[in-house]
Design brief:
There is one protein chain. The chain has one helix spanning 2-22; strands at 31-35, 43-54, 59-60, 65-73, 78-83, 85-88, 95-102, 106-115, 123-131. By secondary structure, it is an alpha+beta fold. The protein has one domain (25-131): Immunoglobulin-like (Sandwich).
Length: 133
């Protein structure tokens, strides 16, 4: 009887170790931010919508806490040209919206950082917005 219990324990141990490894927290690389709109134009109070997706399951992440945002014209060589970013409510799961003033056409860099519930590390994204007249 003891041999059966020992043998069962030896067979079960590797299965439990593998299960624990696969159920561990995801890495920040398992998430991706993406700009939702295809066209943006200069103006005041422009709404930018950003989605956050869990790449492992390809599902939207709707419970993230966005705590850092920065919008500047670094791709145009004007990193010092920034604009305030104001979070606004969104009705779409996994989508986060922001009001910004886009002073001019060109390429804008949007940096964003979020905490995803259940994940130890911060999820960060850097998106390039194409703003046309």
């Amino acid at each position: 009887m003891n041999t059966t219990v020992c043998l069962r324990s030896l067979l079960l141990a590797p299965v439990l170790i593998l299960a624990a490894a696969f159920s561990a927290s995801a890495a920040p690389e398992d998430y991706a931010f993406k700009i939702v709109q295809s066209e943006l134009h200069p103006g005041e109070g422009v709404t930018i919508a950003v989605s956050l997706t869990d790449l492992r399951t390809n599902t939207p992440v709707s419970d993230a806490v966005i705590f850092t945002t920065r919008l500047d014209m670094a791709p145009e060589g004007m990193e010092g040209m920034t604009t305030p970013v104001e979070a606004v409510a969104s009705d779409v799961p996994g989508q986060y919206q922001f009001k910004v003033d886009l002073a001019m056409a060109g390429s804008w860099r949007f940096q964003i950082a979020a905490k995803v519930q259940g994940e130890a590390e911060t999820v960060r994204g850097e998106l390039i917005l194409g703003v046309t007249k």
